[in-house]
Design a protein that fits this description.
2 domains; seven-stranded antiparallel beta sheet; XRCC4-like_N_sf; Non-homologous end-joining factor 1; DNA damage; XLF-like_N
């Protein structure tokens, strides 16, 4: 599941598959119950079935199957969780009178019927499960099992390398005179190819001889599943954090770039204005200098009148 997917699928993915037996049928089950909703997955390794119910649908089905009972959806759902959750968790049904049955439908669906008592009246419930989409089956079962398989392969490889180093250490002790105090503790040198061939020859026939209904999803495998999914959740959370940080950094860089570009444009415009001013000044026609001394010369060019008196 990736970011943005259905939250209920992510919650369901966190829960490991649990082996249960209903009406003699060996199943792997995982379920997710909230306040007034649930989601359930079942598989017999031939098909995967699912059902998802919300509050309104639970209320409607409860009234359909229990016409004599009148209660709120919270009361119905609380009783359903109390009775069926232990069974879907690999345990036993609570209450001596609680019973659970599984029936297969001709259309490929399966019904898991529950009978118990609520307020001293019979209480009935049906999980009406239909085949799950292939994408859901892959996300909830196939991919996690492939991850677990790779984890086990790496573990086997590391253990093989450890045995080789241990053999080298023991050989060094022997060459320096060390001896075993008890002969029964002596072991053969580990050879990976020989061990693999012997393992395949002895273990595979034993596994195939077991009943095919034995799914073998034991506590160790459940713990391995939980660990693998928890690591995946942390990795996705880290990737989302990085993705959220990148747009912010890019936005900051864009702002700096935009400001720098704006400053360059202003500088270019300013330079253009200076160049335009210089051009105008250069092209302006030169005006002849006015002779500021002309008026003075004109004054001095006037003949001075002599004073004439009565006597010469």
């Amino acid at each position: 599941m990736e970011a943005g997917s259905d939250p209920s699928e992510e919650q369901l993915l966190q829960r490991p598959w649990l082996p249960v037996s209903i009406s003699g049928c060996q199943l792997l089950v995982k379920s997710c119950f909230s306040d007034t909703a649930y989601r359930i997955l079942l598989t017999d390794m031939h098909c995967v079935w699912e059902e998802r119910m919300e509050a309104a649908a639970i209320q409607s089905r409860a009234q359909e199957l229990n016409r004599r009972l009148r209660a709120s959806v919270e009361a119905f759902f609380s009783h359903l969780c109390e009775v069926v959750q232990p069974c879907l968790s690999g345990g036993e049904l609570t209450g001596g009178k609680a019973q659970i049955f599984l029936t297969r439908q001709d259309n490929g669906n399966i019904n898991v019927r529950l009978k118990s008592e609520l307020a001293e009246l019979p209480f009935y419930w049906e999980f009406r499960c239909s085949p799950a989409p292939v994408a859901l089956a892959c996300a909830q079962l196939v991919r996690p099992l492939l991850v677990i398989s790779r984890m086990l392969q790496q573990q086997v490889k590391q253990l093989g390398g450890l045995l080789v180093r241990k053999d080298a250490e023991i050989q060094d002790y022997r060459e320096n005179g060390a001896t075993l105090s008890r002969e029964r503790l002596q072991t053969e040198v580990f050879e990976e190819s020989t061990y693999r061939e012997h393992f395949m020859a002895t273990t595979l026939p034993f596994l195939w001889s077991e009943s095919l209904d034995s799914l073998g999803f034991d506590a160790d495998l459940q713990q391995l599943y939980t660990t693998a999914i928890a690591h995946r959740k942390r990795k996705l959370s880290e990737e989302r954090s990085v993705q959220e940080e990148q747009p912010a950094a890019e936005s900051s860089a864009d702002v700096v770039s935009a400001r720098s570009e704006a400053a360059n444009i202003r500088k270019q415009n300013h330079n253009k204005q200076d160049e335009t001013t210089d051009v105008k000044t250069t092209n302006r026609p030169t005006m002849p200098k006015s002779d500021m001394s002309i008026p003075a010369e004109r004054k001095s060019s006037k003949a001075k009148k002599k004073k004439v008196g009565l006597f010469r």
